[in-house]
Amino acid sequence: MKALVFEAFGGPEVLQFREVEDPVIGPNEILVRMQAIGLNFADVYRRRGNYHLAGNPPYILGYEGAGIVEKVGSSVTGVKAGDTVGFADVPFANAELVAVPFEKAIPLPAGISCETAASVLLQGLTAHYLTRDSYIVKQGDTVLVHAAAGGVGQLLIQIVKMLGAAAIGLVSTDSKRQAAAQAGASSVLLYSDNWVERIKELTEGIGVDAVYESVGATLSESFEAVRTGGTVVFYGMAGGDPAYIDPRMLMDTSKTLTGGDLWNVLTSRKERLKRAHELFEWITSGQLCVPPVTTFPLAEGVSAHQLLESRKSVGKILLIP
């Protein structure tokens, strides 16, 4: 099979599209021929060497995608060849074939295509747990969403609005304002603005109830923008490492800092199916719209990574084998 691989850490140029050995499935795995693969910042971090990688090179990136079942292991029941499945947390997804543990395979219902699943599973399930677990959005809340034109950002805005709250979006360029506004943000601010002061103005000096912080380098400003007793949810650092937070500030202001990681939520097949089912229901009922998608052939993975790192992309980037 062909796969997108790299042998040394570095920039997008280290990626190569070449022939590798087909995966061999075990009794509790299924072999999936990939139709669409989600590209995420975690892939960039792994390629750069920010995350530990097990095994030896060549390394294959990718954790999210969807495709058609080609073969099932001897102990697998309930899934057959020809079914379509997706996944959000299976390694080596940047390939034509992927060995998927049965417990991580999410059957796709009618109305959810492979491209849709690869577009929303990781980011959609992230937005789901952020609003259902990390900070439970309540009707009447005002919430600040960082990177509001990105895949998670647009989904967060839609879910926040669906739950009866207002979302303020933060974006890096004027060209991204429209995406955040179309997702339903009540206001969209630029990082180049004095955005903390603007948020205070929009909230009559009080601050927002919660901040979904995915940039990292803006963590201190997020605490300035949240009200006394409010919550900052830290779940990413696409813009650099966060500053250290003094716990005395948390005590003095009664503010909360909480972290979020999808892998601490997707702990069983039951959890995956329950959360994915609600996400798919929101999509098929029209309550949640899939953000715009930009596609690249898997062979052009270098260009896809360059676009993602440029922070000029809007919505999701997919790799198509």
List the topology elements.
Blueprint: E1 2-6, E2 16-19, E3 29-39, H1 41-48, E4 59-60, E5 64-72, E6 84-87, E7 97-101, E8 106-107, H2 114-134, E9 142-145, H3 151-162, E10 166-171, H4 174-183, E11 187-190, H5 195-202, E12 208-213, H6 219-225, E13 226-234, H7 247-253, E14 256-259, H8 269-284, E15 293-297, H9 301-310, E16 316-320
Parallel strand pairs: 9-10, 9-12, 10-11, 12-13, 13-14, 15-16
Antiparallel strand pairs: 1-2, 1-4, 3-5, 3-7, 3-16, 5-6, 6-8
Helix pairs in contact: 2-3, 5-6
What features would you describe in this structure?
This protein is α/β, with parallel strands linked by helices and 321 residues long. The chain has two domains: 2-121 and 265-320, Medium-chain alcohol dehydrogenases, catalytic domain (Quinone Oxidoreductase, Chain A, domain 1, Alpha-Beta Complex); 139-259, Rossmann fold (3-Layer(aba) Sandwich), CATH 3.40.50.720. Helix content is 31%, strand content 26%. The protein has nine helices and 16 strands. The chain has helices at residues 41-48, 114-134, 151-162, 174-183, 195-202, 219-225, 247-253, 269-284, 301-310; strands at 2-6, 16-19, 29-39, 59-60, 64-72, 84-87, 97-101, 106-107, 142-145, 166-171, 187-190, 208-213, 226-234, 256-259, 293-297, 316-320.
CATH topology name of the largest domain, in short, is Quinone Oxidoreductase, Chain A, domain 1
State the low-pLDDT regions, or none. Answer: none
CATH architecture of the largest domain: Alpha-Beta Complex
Output mean pLDDT.
94
Helical coverage, percent range: 25-40%
Q: Total helix count?
A: 9
The general outline is: globular
* Main beta-sheet strand count, sense and barrel state: 7 strands, mixed
Number of domains: 2
CATH homologous superfamily heading of the largest domain: Medium-chain alcohol dehydrogenases, catalytic domain
What structural class do helix, strand and pairing data support?
A: alpha/beta
Order of helices and strands: EEEHEEEEEHEHEHEHEHEHEHEHE
Cα gyration radius (Å): 20 Å
CATH class of the largest domain: Alpha Beta
**Percentage of residues in DSSP E strands:** 25-35%
How many E-type strands? 16
Terminal residue distance: 10 Å
